[in-house]
Amino acid sequence: MDTILPRKAQQPSVVSRVDKQATALARARYDRQASSYDRRQGMLEGIQRPWRKRLWGMVNGPPVLEVGVGTGLNMPYWPADVEVTATDLSPRMLERARERAAELGLVADLRLADVQALELPDSSFETAVATCVFCSVPDAVLGLRELGRVVRPGGQILLLEHMRPENPFLGALTDLLTPLSVRLTGANLNRRTLENIRAAGLKIGSVEDLAMAGMFKLIVAQPG
Question: Which CATH class is domain 12-222?
Answer without folding.
Answer: alpha beta
